[in-house]
UniProtKB/TrEMBL annotation:
Lineage of the species this protein comes from: Bacteria, Bacillati, Actinomycetota, Actinomycetes, Kitasatosporales
Gene Ontology CC annotations of this record: cytosol
Keyword DNA repair: no
Gene Ontology biological-process entries: dTDP-rhamnose biosynthetic process
Descriptive protein name: dTDP-4-dehydrorhamnose reductase
Ranges of residues in domain RmlD-like substrate binding: 1-277
Organism: Streptomyces smaragdinus
Entry-linked InterPro entries: dTDP_dehydrorham_reduct, NAD(P)-bd_dom_sf, RmlD-like-bd
Gene behind this protein: strL
Pathway entry: Carbohydrate biosynthesis; dTDP-L-rhamnose biosynthesis
């Protein structure tokens, strides 16, 4: 099998490429996914078995004032890759988001649950999903990503633990912290199953199992770092107003994996425990302030 990974400069792509050293990797400077001609030429020349699209506009708040730009990347960019993959017979794995849902549910969203994004970011990602699904591709929705290869909520909490006595974190948003290493492994497994014909096209939910709030996640991070979790104090979304609306509930269901013969991803706590050594590597030093801390309710997303 041969692989093409777009958006290769992002946090998730770093973990995908660590497991696929033979893959062709292209970052933003090498490929503008909004350029249909360039996308078609690249996919046509590489002729991969699987394309993993990690190229995305993930600045959620900026999308509110630059929706056309965000949707061009997240919607048209995905459509360009879907067309090129279809034309060459490649499998496309499109990374998407929980933001395609309204976020007001009380039970996990099934893969076929009605969508209803409340913000610009979600609308653009939904447009990309529709193009990929119409072309027979695969959509993998994820959320609350963290990893060693980029800025994210977990690393922010580690930094704040070393610089603040207490940290206020929102306790009224529920979701699933997801380690990029676990998601990368699942994307590769799905690509292999798709090529083998054992995984049907459609939407899958790529999040670690279980659920918590940002407050619950922060307390777990502090505890695993050997700090007192009581230093994390609960607050509300209203205390941290942001341009883009945040989903109050974005827990995703995982039933479709069983249809592909794969178990859902493991519990988020187990993943976080295993991830912590990489996130607290002294050479990386995430506790050293760099440009000031992100808001404590930040999605932590900057790029896949």
């Amino acid at each position: 099998m041969s692989w093409l990974v777009t958006g290769a400069g992002g946090m998730l792509a770093a973990d995908v490429l660590a497991r696929l050293p033979e893959a062709v990797a292209v970052a933003r400077p090498e490929l503008d996914v909004t350029d249909a001609g360039a996308v078609g030429a690249l996919v046509g020349s590489v002729r991969p078995s699987v394309v993993v699209n990690c190229a995305a506009w993930t600045a959620v708040d900026d999308a509110e004032t630059r929706e056309a730009d965000a949707s061009l990347v997240n919607g048209q960019g995905a459509a360009n890759l879907a067309r090129a993959a279809r034309d060459t017979g490649a499998v496309l794995l499109q990374v998407s988001t929980d933001y395609v849902f309204s976020g007001d549910a009380h039970t996990p969203y099934a893969e076929d649950a009605p969508t209803g994004p409340r913000g610009a970011y979600g609308r653009g990602k939904l447009a990309g999903e529709r193009a990929v699904l119409a072309a027979g591709g695969y959509v993998v929705r994820t959320a609350w990503l963290y990893g060693a290869g980029g800025g994210n909520f977990v690393r922010t909490m580690l930094r704040l633990e070393g610089t603040r006595e207490t940290v206020d974190v929102v306790d009224d948003q529920y979701g699933q912290p997801t380690w990029t290493a676990d998601l990368a492994a699942r994307l590769i497994a799905l690509g292999q199953a798709a090529v083998a014909g054992t995984a049907p096209p459609g939407a899958y939910h790529g999040t670690n199992a279980g659920a918590t709030t940002w407050y619950g996640l922060a307390r777990e991070v502090f505890a695993l770092a050997g700090a007192d979790p009581s230093r994390v104090r609960p607050t509300t979304t209203a205390a941290f107003p942001r341009p883009a609306p945040r989903p109050a509930y974005s827990v995703l269901g995982h039933d479709r994996w069983r249809a592909a013969g794969m178990a859902p991803m493991r519990d988020w706590r187990a993943a976080l425990r295993e991830a912590m050594p990489a996130l607290t590597d002294p050479g990386d030093n995430p506790r050293t302030p760099a440009g000031g801390p992100a808001p404590a309710n930040s999605r932590g997303e900057r790029d896949y």
